[in-house]
Structure formats: structure tokens, C-alpha cells
Amino acid sequence: MGKYKKWFVMLICVALLSACTAPAFLMKEPASMNEKKVELTSKQRLPKGFFPIDLNIVAIGDSLTEGVGDGTKKGGYVPHVAEFMSEQRAVDHVSVNNLGKRGNRTDQLLARLNESEVAAKVERADIIFVTIGGNDMMKVVRDFFYNISLETFKQEKSKYENRLHQVFQRMRQLNGDAQIYLVGFYNPFFHSLSTVDEINTVVKEWNETSENVASQYENVTYVKVDDIFALTEENLLAKDEFHPNQKGYKLMAERINYYIKRQDPLMTDDGSLIEEDDSLLEIDESLEEGEQGNEN
After folding, report:
1. Of 47, 48, 84, 248, which is the most exposed, with the fewest CB atoms less than 10 Å away?
2. How many structural domains does the chain have?
3. How many CA atoms lie within 13 A of 232 on its CB side?
4. What is the rounded distance in angstroms from the CA atom of residue 210 to the CA atom of residue 214?
5. How far is CA 268 from CA 82, 127, 264, 272, 275, in A?
6. What global pTM score does this model have?
């Protein structure tokens, strides 16, 4: 009897242990209870400008890029533009190479672009600023001083146009991606020789040629500056009465910065495209009206 009682107690213990450790197939939950929902979303690219970038700027051309007339001796419009860029959230660091050289014409600039040191700097540039053309026009005055006419300027303008094409073609050979800004020139005699309308006509036509050439190349923007010096009574010229003074260069830089913001949304505080500045349109219209008045 004690033997059977012992086996009975053992069976009860086994049954209790089995209830606590049920087989896996008995404890498995229904599939619908165990499934995890996984939602797949398309990979999102980081927006342009998410990480601050380093910018390599090259400014090249004539005395307007060198900064002749700037009382601070810091390089005319170039440091103002560099400062503007460095203040943008999308930009981490700005490096500048100012290759401006007083007296440079398009033929001389083209020759410099074939120099190894200059070519290497242009190759590495992210943004290139160019001032050229003013000395080409002044050379016409020197070469044809005793027999000059509007027709002479028109003939020489076509040669200037061809050389300017060569300059941009060379730049694109060296650097196919950089954004290029061609800054126009102005009539330094607009106020001192206000009765000589022919000078305004020549400057206007040569600037139009520069703008037309720039429009034929991708990522090349023409920057108009002649109205800055024409439509003000404030003196914006240096003591030589030819080159801009410190204030003149600052206003040129502000105009260049405006075009930069139009071209690249990253150069605005919130990364959005800026709206057209109506004041620029008003300036252009006023300049045209003034020219028409002089013609009449």
C-alpha cells in the first residue's frame, strides 16, 4: 500500500510540473497576435545645404577687381562679397583669391588664363567674379583719338565680343561647374561730361554686348552696375575721378550680392528664393528715360 501511495504522489507532481511548463506548440500565440507591423518608407535625401560648405572664390580681371581707388586698400568689392557669403548659414568657410590686375583687357586676361598658376586657381574655384571690358573701350579712345566716331566703337566692339567669348570658353575649359558673375562697367564721366551723350551710348552698347555674351553660357550671370554711378548725386569716385571710392565699391558689392541671392537660394537667410527687387526695375526705367530725354 505504501508503494502505490508513493507512485500516486509522483504522478501528481509530474502533472503539476507539466502544467507549468507546457510544450511550445501549446503555448504559441496565434499568428495574428505575434505579427509586428513594419512600415517601409522611401529613403529621404538630405537637403542641399544641410551641411555647411566651404567656398573657394576667385576674382579676376581689371582694376575694378584689384580695388584701385578703394581707400581701405582691401580689394574693392571683393571683401564685401566674401563677407556676405561667409555670413550665410549654408557656408562654413570662404577662401578668396583676388587676381585683379590694373589695366587688364580681354586679350591680356585671356593670356593670363593660360598661365599655370592662374589656371590652377580658376580650376579649383566654386565661384568666379570677372570685371573686364572697360580698358578695351579706353584703348579705342587712345588708338583712334584724332579720328574717333561711334562707328569706330561699333567696329571695335565686335572684336571685343569675340575676345570675351574666348575668355569664357577658356574658363569653361578650366572649370565647367563654377558659377561665374561678369560685372559690367560704368561711365566715369557721366557727371563731369554730362553733355557728351556719345559716351553714354558707347558704354551702354558695350555693356549690352557683355550681357549678351554672358547669356550664351551656362551658369554665367551678368551684373549691371552702371546705374549705380549714374543715378546719384553722391560722389562715388576716388580722387582719380575714374575708379570707385570705398562707397562706390560697397554699392557694387551690394548689387553683386543681390544677383547671388537671385541665383542661389542657399545664399538667403532661410534658403528661399528672393523676390524680384522692384527698385532695380525702377532704376533701369529711370536711366532709360534720362537717356531718351538727352536724345530729344
Report:
1. 47
2. 1
3. 14
4. 6
5. 14, 16, 8, 6, 11
6. 0.76
